[in-house]
Backbone:
């Protein structure tokens, strides 16, 4: 029941609505008692031949009006209670979404997309069940159960009632026990299904490998093993699931047995009338649902409260990246000074970066090269304030970057990441992602600079072409160039290209870099790359290996140093030529 | 293909729906007996259901109304009622269990056939269809079949329930039953109304939910971009709009259900009771009647109306089922099969000589990507394919691997047409090393063995040693039994390459086809890979899309491709001597080095 207390903020907020729903529910519970009673009365009047036209008309009029009134009230409580449940889901979903967007990188490393999605779908459903089914069951079980019981006790016969309801608590126990068992087995079945999913995913993604090795038959066999497992797990589910209705039937059967037996004796002894008996049988049937629902209620609450626990755990997570009180809010400008003593990723003991020290004057270009995993991207991540905990100081225009507001810093940085994530939207919206208000001209200008304009025009719907999951699939190079256009469009004070030209050919790379040079007079650029040709024109180039700078200088001076840089340059020149200029 | 799918959501014409249902039902035919048994139980259930009120009616009319009743008689009726209840309970359990199991087996059957079908399809299908689309067909759409089958059960139960309670009423009193039938047209109107409104709203709700979840997943995946461009607020606002839209459609669904589902059925039931009491009451005004019959009729009226709520509720699931079925059938109907081999193909690859004679090939039957390609690779020799993207290098491999069928010319292995070899022989005697090595979930051993049970652990270790993958594998916890997570994420691309080398070499292929990786490989493994490639080539006929200088220089023959034509051919030295475009490229880079 604790879950109701924890959700009390919502119940309070929707107080009126819930009140209206529950009052309707209670009235319906009372109204429900009328038809069986009227049937009983009419039966008795016919039996004793005391029926008159007037009495019949009166009873039928009352019956018809309860039918209509019940309809109206049922409509009201359904809309109120189920509507509120949907509303709770909406509110918590918004809380989750807003929270996700406020979280830092660490959060997304801790929780994988699949987990977060599961919380935002399954756990919200669990919560919706509490606010809908839970409240309904609680109110219904109490009102219907109680009123029916009272009616049986006082209107019909208390002795018959006390005996007939003996088996009913079994209903609650059964639904609770079976429900719990079913839940466990169902979880196994879900897990089996998700393994099956993984299997299919792998087979399809690795289809070329399977075909290459001619292992189709074996793969189908493995798949069959998985489906066998799914069937076996579901079999266990069905064994329990198919028990619910028969179990209710059985328990009610005992109750009917007692009712017929004791009721028959009472009628025989003229203690109750046949009409009472008919009324009573109908009332007994009405107790099935509330009793059963009580058992179910426990399960709903249990699952709902586990769901809410998980959601609250997520909502309690905090971001390590926070703006300082009174942070500088004028946009960054000036020189960049990077003086890092050391940095390790959170919960990682290995030092990822050590003694990285460089200065980049406003308007200058810095090149960062090194092999994969050397630490190039980490340097950039610190600049982007994805991590704030490091030894040393990074200053922009003489102030620590951690002293700026995030807007002041990030809105001036155009970062083009390695993995070019595009959203399922049109190309236009992807390019003007930072500001959907920008004009088509501005979008095109940026696209031209990124040398992607022509490619876009050749697509079926030009700038309106949808990309991503449902749209056209673009080549890696095209995606890279769209991400570059996206960054160019904000005219950033600092532009960062993080190996963002790896999938375009040398000529395009040349075009883009010289185009950028032309329009970005006086603005600062950092280019990290595996390919030397991307950085060779920079004023300073640093070579990173295992988290430290091992060589630094201009292209010319680095070639003279006869080190890693020179080796790499020669090797790349050679291979590129033989591949016919292809990347 | 996906686009078509979206349009289908709107509406499928009735005749097509019937056709789809008929076809999808055919997958249930192996389990016909189980289904029939379940249906039989269903009938029995409805019959016991009708018997119970009848027992009470007879008890009332024949015994209770006649004055004092013997305790034995009372006990007899109570026992009779209980006995029928026990039968009802048993019948019900088996009905549910047998039906559920039969539908589960049917789904398994569909899955099995779908999956086998996928493996019969050629690379063209996989190149054209997104992975996500295929996976959803094989898992979610087949899973949806269970709900679909359950709809059938609900319909069967409902129909029998309704008709048998009607029949029971007829047996009691024909006139009253006919009167009750005036509710039938009202019910039909309500069902129709509900179907029209609910299916529209339900479809809308579902598509909004999927939009909502897509947005959520996208935001999580693209979070770093969002943060980088400081678009959190805007996306929050956009998401809230979608969230609100979903809430709105869910709310309309709640309203439609409240308006047209159980409350209205409940009202109709009570009104039918009014009718029953009115008829019997009016009759009773003139002559005495039996009262038990009134009880029985009100009971049957309840049985008549009750199944309708569930029946109506499952209508939306029915639509879902038809849509999922039609998607499954699109895959089953796909005819992009694996290229066919000759019927009695039984040739064996012995020496591994490869000849291309005037081969032309096109993916779309319009634009040739290979034009009159001819070359010969003698057993044990290496040929290197050089050229830009789109020059036709990969297409040569696609043709040689029989991923695609070629249109003109001849491809010969050991002097026999490639079509004369059974597919299995081709696959087992040719080893293709892919650019991106794909690892499966499992262990290192599993990934080298790749489901071929004939390969022993010893052979695996030898293969790993041969390509020098043994060094890093033996450092792993569990060594050859070390876990490989999804897509081999915990290994570097170089390590993955080495593992895939081992899985190729363990099969000891006669012909080696290399699609060399262009991706940056960590320098530690680079030299191992280079050496591994050299060792693998020894004694094997090799066709390589070459990116590595060493591979190119060592080749016995280099083909320079451009737009599907061979523009130059020869050894490295010959090509340099000839002074063509190969030499041009080579010299260009030499000058570059001197500056």
Residues:
């Amino acid at each position: 029941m604790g879950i109701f207390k924890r959700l009390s903020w919502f119940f309070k907020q929707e107080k009126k609505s819930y009140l209206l729903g529950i009052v309707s529910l209670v009235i319906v519970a009372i109204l429900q008692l009328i038809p069986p009673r009227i049937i009983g009365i009419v039966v008795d009047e016919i039996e004793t031949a005391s029926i008159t036209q007037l009495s019949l008309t009166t009873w039928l009029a009352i019956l018809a009006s309860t039918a209509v009134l019940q309809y109206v009230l049922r409509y009201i409580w359904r809309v109120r209670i189920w509507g509120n449940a949907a509303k709770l889901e909406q509110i918590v979903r918004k809380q989750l979404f807003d929270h996700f967007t406020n979280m830092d990188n660490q959060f997304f490393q801790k929780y994988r997309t699949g987990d977060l999605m599961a919380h935002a779908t399954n756990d919200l459903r669990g919560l919706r069940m509490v606010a809908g089914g839970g409240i309904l069951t609680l109110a219904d079980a109490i009102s219907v159960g109680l009123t029916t019981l009272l009616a049986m006790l006082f209107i019909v016969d208390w002795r018959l009632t006390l005996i007939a309801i003996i088996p009913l608590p079994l209903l609650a126990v059964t639904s609770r026990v079976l429900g719990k068992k079913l839940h466990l087995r169902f979880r196994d079945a879900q897990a089996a299904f998700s393994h099956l999913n993984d299997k299919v995913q792998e087979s399809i993604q690795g289809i070329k490998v399977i075909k290459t090795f001619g292992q189709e038959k074996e793969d189908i066999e493995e798949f069959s093993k998985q489906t066998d497992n799914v069937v076996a797990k579901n079999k266990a589910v069905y064994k329990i699931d198919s028990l619910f209705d028969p179990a209710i039937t059985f328990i009610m059967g005992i109750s009917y047995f007692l009712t017929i037996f004791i009721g028959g004796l009472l009628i025989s002894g003229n203690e109750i009338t046949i009409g009472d008996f008919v009324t009573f049988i109908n009332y007994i049937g009405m107790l099935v649902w509330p009793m059963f629902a009580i058992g179910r209620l426990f399960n709903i609450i249990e699952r709902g409260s586990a769901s809410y626990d998980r959601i609250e755990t997520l909502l309690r997570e905090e971001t390590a990246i926070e703006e300082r009180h009174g942070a500088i809010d004028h946009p960054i400008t000036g020189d960049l000074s990077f003086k890092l003593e050391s940095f390790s990723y959170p919960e990682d003991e290995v030092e990822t970066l050590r003694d990285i020290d460089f200065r980049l004057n406003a308007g200058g270009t810095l090149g960062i090269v090194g092999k994969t995993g050397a630490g190039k991207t980490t340097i950039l991540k610190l600049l982007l304030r994805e991590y704030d905990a490091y030894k040393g100081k990074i200053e922009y225009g003489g102030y620590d970057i951690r002293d700026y507001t995030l807007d002041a810093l990030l809105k001036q940085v155009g970062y083009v990441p390695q993995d070019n994530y595009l959203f399922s939207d049109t190309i236009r919206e992807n390019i003007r992602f930072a500001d959907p208000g920008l004009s088509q001209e501005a979008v095109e200008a940026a696209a031209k600079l990124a040398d992607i304009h022509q490619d876009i025009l050749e697509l079926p719907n030009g700038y309106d072409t949808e990309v991503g999951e449902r749209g056209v699939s673009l080549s890696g190079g095209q995606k890279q160039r769209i991400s570059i256009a996206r960054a160019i469009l904000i005219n950033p004070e600092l532009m960062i290209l993080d190996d963002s030209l790896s999938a375009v050919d040398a000529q395009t790379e040349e075009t883009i870099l010289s185009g950028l040079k032309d329009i970005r007079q006086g603005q600062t650029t950092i280019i990290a790359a595996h390919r030397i040709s991307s950085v060779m024109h920079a004023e300073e180039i640093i070579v990173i290996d295992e988290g430290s700078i091992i060589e630094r200088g201009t292209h010319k001076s680095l070639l003279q140093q006869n080190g890693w840089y020179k080796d790499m340059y020669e090797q790349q020149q050679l291979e590129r030529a033989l591949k016919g200029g292809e990347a | 293909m996906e686009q078509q799918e979206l349009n289908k959501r709107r509406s499928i014409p009735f005749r097509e729906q019937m056709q789809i249902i008929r076809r999808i039902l055919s997958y249930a035919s192996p389990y016909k007996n189980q289904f029939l048994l379940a249906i039989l139980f269903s009938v029995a259930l409805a019959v016991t259901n009708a018997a119970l009120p009848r027992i009470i009616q007879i008890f009332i009319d024949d015994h209770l109304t006649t004055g004092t009743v013997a305790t034995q008689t009372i006990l007899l009726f109570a026992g009779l009622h209980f006995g029928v209840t026990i039968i009802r309970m048993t019948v019900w359990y088996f009905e549910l269990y047998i039906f559920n199991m039969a539908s589960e087996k049917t789904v398994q059957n569909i899955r099995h056939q779908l999956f086998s079908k996928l493996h019969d399809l050629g690379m063209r299908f996989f190149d054209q269809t997104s992975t996500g689309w295929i996976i959803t067909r094989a898992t979610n759409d087949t899973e949806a079949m269970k709900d679909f089958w359950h709809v059938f059960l609900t319909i069967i139960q409902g129909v029998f329930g309704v008709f048998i309670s009607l029949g029971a009423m007829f047996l009691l009193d024909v006139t009253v039953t006919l009167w009750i039938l005036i509710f039938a047209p009202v019910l039909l109107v309500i069902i129709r109304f509900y179907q029209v409104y609910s299916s529209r709203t339900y479809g809308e709700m579902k598509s909004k939910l999927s939009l909502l979840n897509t947005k959520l997943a996208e935001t999580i995946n693209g979070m770093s971009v969002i943060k980088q461009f400081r678009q959190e607020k805007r996306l929050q606002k956009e998401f809230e709009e979608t969230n609100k839209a979903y809430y709105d459609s869910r709310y309309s669904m709640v309203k439609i259900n409240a308006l047209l589902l159980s409350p209205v059925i409940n009202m109709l039931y009570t009104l039918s009771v009014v009718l029953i009491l009115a008829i019997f009451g009016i009759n009773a005004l003139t002559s005495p009647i039996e009262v038990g019959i009134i009880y029985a009729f009100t009971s049957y009226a309840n049985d008549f109306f009750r199944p309708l709520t569930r029946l109506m509720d499952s209508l939306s699931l029915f639509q879902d089922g038809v849509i999922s079925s039609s998607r499954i059938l699109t895959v089953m109907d796909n005819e992009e099969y694996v290229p066919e081999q000759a019927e009695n193909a039984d040739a064996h690859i012995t020496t591994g000589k490869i000849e291309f004679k005037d081969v032309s090939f096109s993916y779309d039957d319009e634009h040739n990507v290979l034009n009159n390609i001819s070359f010969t690779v003698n057993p044990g020799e290496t040929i290197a394919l050089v050229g830009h993207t789109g020059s036709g290098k990969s297409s040569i491999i696609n043709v040689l691997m029989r991923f695609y069928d070629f249109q003109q010319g001849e491809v010969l292995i050991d002097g026999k047409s490639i079509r004369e070899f059974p597919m299995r022989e081709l696959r087992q005697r040719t080893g293709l090393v892919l650019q991106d090595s794909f690892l499966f979930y499992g262990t290192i051993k599993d990934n080298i063995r790749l489901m071929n049970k004939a390969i022993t652990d010893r052979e695996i270790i030898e293969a790993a040693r041969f390509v020098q993958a043994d060094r890093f594998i033996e450092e792993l916890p569990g060594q050859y039994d070390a876990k490989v997570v999804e897509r081999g994420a915990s290994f570097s691309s170089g390590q993955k390459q080495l593992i895939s080398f081992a899985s190729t070499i363990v099969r000891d292929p006669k012909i080696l086809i290399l699609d060399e990786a262009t991706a940056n490989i960590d320098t530690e493994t680079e030299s191992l890979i280079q050496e591994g490639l050299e060792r693998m080539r020894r004694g094997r006929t090799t066709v390589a899309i070459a990116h590595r200088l060493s591979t190119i220089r060592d080749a016995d023959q280099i083909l320079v491709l451009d737009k599907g034509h061979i523009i130059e051919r020869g050894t490295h030295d010959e090509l340099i001597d000839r002074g063509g475009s190969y030499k041009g490229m080579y010299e260009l880079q030499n000058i570059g080095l001197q500056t």
Chain A touches chain B through 147 residues (CB under 8 Å). Chain A has a mean pLDDT of 86.
